[in-house]
Write a structure and sequence with these properties.
heterodimer; A: alpha/beta; L,D-transpeptidase catalytic domain-like; 9-stranded mixed β-sheet; 3 helices; B: alpha/beta; D-Maltodextrin-Binding Protein, domain 2; 3-stranded parallel β-sheet; globular
Chain lengths: ~200, ~325
């Protein structure tokens, strides 16, 4: 069971096949957010700008405590009531998380382990077979599992990827934010995911 | 000749005494839209050193020109101060007024004007200094409040505090400058005025980031383009250009993807682009009038962000002006 969770977790990470490989085969470049061993502790926060954790005006019919993820805006809202939400900056899936809808938080983990699946190892042979949870792990400080999907809300060791679309579908927050959200979010919390409209 | 005269008479009677009909025909004959704007309001109506206009209100004039002529430059701007704006419209000096004007019953019931749509939900707000972490106007109990004399903000202030069981210490000042000075020297904790003005004033502070504009608004100041009430066809067109900009944002159509939108097979996109429906023709313009406007000026979000939002020096959050489906109250009827 644990292995399966790890496999699902690995699917969330970037399939970082370096695009520059053809031109210079000896250089293996990594995409942002896939920097194994880079350290980012629980205190990492965004200090300024729109992706800083902040209370914003937000009207909604969802009950306080609900999480609303707007992939187009790169924001995650935790509904507070009184027309307010706590807004976090997020990084989202590169190809878009190709469905919208509602799921619930089914599991919470601190410093999740990472076990890349075989297909990921095949693409990126330099990846470890197993990486214990910790400050250098790309999954970051906390993970919140979304329903029965392969996706989750997790931390990152690459804060500069917040606001971008780089992952394979997960939602990433800086570690300080994911710890904050983790502590406010019980299992069973509703999560509403919204996509940009398609033409 | 007689028949023609009779027909004209009948037409006039049917139009309920319309003083002027065919605004759109006149605009097409003239080759430009006469658009009334503010003489100067940061983010809404700015004039650069070369005489070029920019801003949120200006961009609506440009969107209209793009909808009619497929060319956003076909606008003749008339800068107007508050006192003369409605008379300029009534007299026919301008075709449309796009100048941060609040939609009220008085203006429609007594001035012979029609507001077409709400493009910006303004309202009285609060600019707070030295209180980091404050998130709500309901935290303002016992605050020292600067307010400009003779404004609606001054009238609203006692009602708001009384209704929310709070007390305050008013400091009524003559000018906005005096209020900002009071805020900076500590006479006041907070300055209250329309939010759009507060965002503009905040940029003048030495450290704008230290001042907070609370998200609450305590009055309704819906701003939007205005036309005369004598030409329903023109009213309709102006209204649907405004709605089209909002609907375009909602459907994901922006200035960069209009070609893709024109090739879309989704029915609601096809109606927006004019590939289906024939609504533009019925309004007297090209069926692709919304596409022309969006391609030239952008959808609502692009116009907002460029002039007022994160990409501008004002840095106003969407707030109430976010789409109804994304936490705000911005709402346009569907194009179908």
């Amino acid at each position: 069971m644990k292995a399966m969770w790890a496999l699902l977790a690995a699917l969330c990470l970037i399939p970082a096949v370096a695009r520059a490989d053809e031109a210079s085969p000896k250089v293996i470049s990594l995409d942002d957010g896939d920097q194994l061993g880079r350290v980012s502790d629980e205190a990492t926060e965004i200090d300024d700008g729109p992706y800083k954790r902040q209370v914003v005006f937000y009207r909604t019919n969802y009950a306080p405590g609900t999480i609303v993820i707007s992939t187009q805006e790169r924001f995650l809202y935790l509904v507070l009531g009184n027309n307010r939400a706590l807004r976090y900056g997020i990084g989202v899936g590169r190809q878009g998380f190709q469905w919208s809808g509602m799921v619930t938080i089914t599991r919470k983990t601190a410093w999740p382990d990472w076990t890349p699946p075989p297909e990921m190892i095949a693409r990126q042979p330099y990846l470890p077979r197993f990486m214990a949870g910790g400050p250098g792990n790309p999954l970051g400080a906390r993970a919140l599992y979304l329903g029965a999907t392969v996706y989750r809300i997790h931390g990152t060791n690459a804060p500069e990827t917040i606001g971008t679309a780089v992952s394979s579908g997960c939602f990433r927050l800086v570690n300080g934010d994911v710890v904050d959200l983790f502590d406010r979010t019980p299992i069973g919390t509703k999560v509403v995911i919204r996509q940009a409209p398609e033409l | 000749m007689w028949a023609k005269g009779l027909a004209a008479l009948l037409g006039a009677a049917l139009a309920c005494g319309a003083a002027e009909a065919g605004t759109l025909d006149k605009i097409k004959a003239r080759g430009t839209i006469a658009c009334g704007v503010s003489t100067g309001l940061p983010g809404f109506s700015d004039r650069d050193a070369k005489g070029g206009w920019s801003g949120f209100d200006v961009d609506f004039c440009r969107a209209l020109a793009a909808a009619v002529f497929n060319d956003p430059s076909k606008v003749a701007y008339t800068p107007l101060v508050a006192d003369e704006r409605f008379e300029a419209l009534k007299s026919g000096q301008i075709d449309v007024l796009s100048r941060n004007s609040t939609w009220t019953i008085e203006r429609e019931a007594t001035l012979g004007l029609l507001f077409t749509a709400i493009l910006y939900h303004d309202g009285q707000g609060f600019l707070v200094l030295r209180h980091p972490g404050m998130t709500s106007a309901l935290e303002l109990d016992k605050a020292k409040v600067c307010v400009q004399k003779g404004t609606t903000s001054e009238q609203n202030l006692p009602d708001f505090f009384k209704y929310n069981s709070m007390t305050y210490e008013p400091h009524v000042v003559e000018t906005v400058e005096a209020a900002m000075k009071g805020l900076q020297d500590g006479t006041c904790d907070v300055f209250t005025a329309d939010q759009s003005a507060l965002y503009a004033e905040r940029t003048e502070l030495a450290k704008p980031a230290e001042a907070i504009i609370l998200p609450d608004v305590i009055s309704k100041e819906p701003l939007g383009p205005v036309v005369r009430n004598d030409d329903v066809a023109w009213f309709n067109l102006v209204k649907w250009v405004a709605f089209g900009l909002i609907d375009a944002e909602e459907l994901g159509v922006n200035s960069q993807n209009t070609d893709k939108a024109l090739a879309s097979t989704k029915p609601e996109i096809k109606r927006l682009t004019g590939a289906e429906g024939g609504f533009g023709k019925a309004l007297g313009v090209d069926d692709a009038f919304v596409v022309h406007a969006v391609k030239a000026v952008g959808n609502y979000d692009e116009i907002f962000q460029r002039n007022l939002g994160a990409a501008s020096k004002l840095a106003i959050p969407r707030g109430l002006n976010q789409l109804w489906s994304a936490g705000g109250v911005l709402y346009a009827p569907p194009m179908r």
